[in-house]
Amino acid sequence: VSGVNKGGVKVDLGGIQAFCPISQLELSYVPDASVYLQKTLRFTITEIKGDRDVVLSRRPILAAERDRKREEIAGGLAVGARVSGTVVRVVDFGAFVDLGGIDGLIPTRELTYGRKRPEQVVSTGQRVEVIIQEITRKGSEMKITLSLKALDDDPWSAVHSVAAPGSVIAGTVRK
Questions:
Q1: How far is it, in rounded angstroms, from Cα 47 to Cα 36?
Q2: Starting at the edge strand that comes first in sequence, how are the strands of the sheet with 16-21 ordered?
Q3: How far from each other are the two terminal CA atoms of the chain, in whole angstroms?
Q4: Could you read off the pLDDT tens digit of each residue along the chain, which spans 175 residues?
Q5: 160: helix, strand or coil
Q6: Distance between CA atoms of 170 and 162, rounded to whole angstroms?
Q7: Can you point out the beta strands (E) in the chain?
Q8: Is beta strand 8-13 parallel, antiparallel or unpaired with respect to 16-21?
């Protein structure tokens, strides 16, 4: 990478000047392309106009590497496996967990046995241990459903120790 302008970077291809738009440098937004100055990177030629106008892209190369890495990671995952990851995003319907390059979702119903909102149970950046509930593939798309509550004891499993079947017990209505 030999130069930077507001639209992207100039690339020296052994004496031939080429251009890579900033949107094609990474898979996500690049706020400052100057960090790529004087670095040697792999590009794909996307367009050649005339004798000297060459347009490059890194996105297809990076996407292929990401997909390969995801497949490696996915090959090691199985339903019922206990894995650890980092919460990357908390939303109304659950929390997304990075399992080392591939994301899984802990739906709200799988966070805890109690009735709590996701942000009351986990926070972004938190390391969690989870159980893989389900892996669904649809073409190249893969969805992984995780459970945090599967690691806790089911509160209903202790009911038999409090009361025998058919017995009457007293309780207090709280809600």
A1: 21
A2: 3-5, 8-13, 16-21, 53-57, 44-49
A3: 65
A4: 999 988 899 999 888 889 999 999 998 888 889 999 999 999 999 999 877 789 999 999 998 888 888 777 777 788 999 999 999 999 999 999 998 878 899 999 999 998 899 999 999 999 999 999 998 888 767 889 999 999 888 887 777 777 778 888 888 998 8
A5: helix
A6: 11
A7: 3-5, 8-13, 16-21, 44-49, 53-57, 82-91, 94-98, 103-107, 127-138, 141-147
A8: antiparallel
Contact 136/142 with Cβ under 8 angstroms? yes
Q: Which residue carries 């367009």 as its tokens?
A: 47
Amino acid, single-letter form, for residue 128: V
CA atoms within 13 A on the CB side of 88: 12
Residue keyed to tokens 């966070």: 111
Paired tokens of 26: 């990474």
The amino acid sitting at 43 is F
- Looking up tokens 């100039």, which residue turns up? 10
